[in-house]
Amino acid sequence: MASDPTELGELEPPPREGVPPTRLMSTMVLLLGVAAFLALPFVLSVGSVVFLPLVAAIILTIVLSPLADRLIRLGLPNVIASAVSLLAAIVGVTFVILAIIQPAFELVDQAPALIARIGEQFSAMRGQFSWLSDINRAVARITGATTGAQVVVAGPSVLEQVVIATPSVVLETLLTLLMTYFMIEARIRMKRRLLLERHSFGASLRAARVMRDVQDRVASYIITVAQINLGVGVIVALGAWALGLTAPIMWGGLAMVLNFLPYLGPLTMTALLGLVGLGTADSVLVGLIPPLLFLGLHAVEANVVTPSLLGARFTLNPVMILLAISYFTWVWGVIGALLSVPILLTLTALVEHLGKPNVVGFLFGEALFDGGDAREDEGDTTPVQAA
């Protein structure tokens, strides 16, 4: 006697499982993260008077805290050590600006004459390539292209732009310096509160690791790159003096500052040297000597010196560097471009400890977060020290 298949459950479909709560929560976190990333540039740009000084103060605090700690070990009180470290940074930046800004304004005034000089040199060479002009005219006749008059709208001069931007720049600078000083002075209390007011020893240990790694990475990177760039600036200044360029100290300062901006900074420096070289030399080949020498120096610095001093620990994805530069330049201009790499380095260190989102794996059913730094070491009895 055959049994009823419905009684054996053979025809009953398997129960359908709903969406796991963890995956639903991960989806919400991912969507909120994408929305925040899209809205963040507008928030940071509109509130630049608040957010730019805050971010710059955080980066400066990370860089100057080791100097303040060293001064404290020499016997200075924390208040004086914090003020001296900040004052040293102000003096250094002021010296660089004064060495660059006055000759740079003179270079801006000479730019039209240099461009005209370059045009004359290339016009003298145009006779050797007259066949290109003939082809261009023939193509224009075939396509019926005509040249129309161009309307140039006069914009504000450089001096007018500086005058308009001065109040905002002064306010942001004062806010940055004040916040930097108070952050440096309060760093010991902030570390102690962050480390000791946790509910578990594992959380305190992990907070200590994150703080130490972020400070070590950012401070070591900026200090090492500053030393490398100082060497590049000295070499460029000596080379400019040997080649007879005006204001060699300005060229060294520009090379040092622009070298903080990966890829785009050296390209800008090469273009400036090419402009001055071609605009002042008697021939095109002689005018190309300064930019070509700088390109050779940059190739040695970028491929030999910097990798050997920084090592793999500070290696960042070039695509991420360019995205960070374009992102923060769009938001905060030149200052954002200079802060982009330290910000990227800080975020990279935080992501390595707190957990990197597995976006690609999440689309195929995996977890969004892999748990981050799993080195909790519950059984570790190493005491947490508040530096």
How would you describe this protein?
With 387 residues, the chain is an all-alpha fold. The chain has 14 helices and no strands. The protein has a domain at 46-120 and 170-354.
- Assign a percent range to the helix content: over 70%
User: How many individual β-strands?
Assistant: 0
C-alpha Rg (nearest Å): 29 Å
Question: Sheet bearing the most strands, described?
Answer: none
Tell me, rounded to a whole number, the average pLDDT.
75
H/E series? HHHHHHHHHHHHHH
* Uncertain segments: 145-155, 157-163, 371-387
How far do the termini sit from each other? Answer: 83 Å
Q: By helix and strand content, what is the structural category?
A: mainly alpha
Count of helical segments?
14
Using the alpha-carbon principal axes, give the shape.
globular
Task: Classify the beta-strand content into a percent band.
Answer: under 5%
Can you describe this structure in just a few lines?
The chain has helices at 5-8, 21-46, 48-73, 78-126, 130-143, 158-185, 187-196, 201-243, 248-258, 264-280, 284-287, 289-310, 318-354, 359-363. The protein is mostly helical.
Structural topology:
Layout: H1 5-8, H2 21-46, H3 48-73, H4 78-126, H5 130-143, H6 158-185, H7 187-196, H8 201-243, H9 248-258, H10 264-280, H11 284-287, H12 289-310, H13 318-354, H14 359-363
Helix pairs in contact: 2-3, 2-13, 3-4, 3-6, 3-8, 3-13, 4-6, 4-9, 4-10, 7-8, 8-9, 8-12, 8-13, 9-10, 10-12
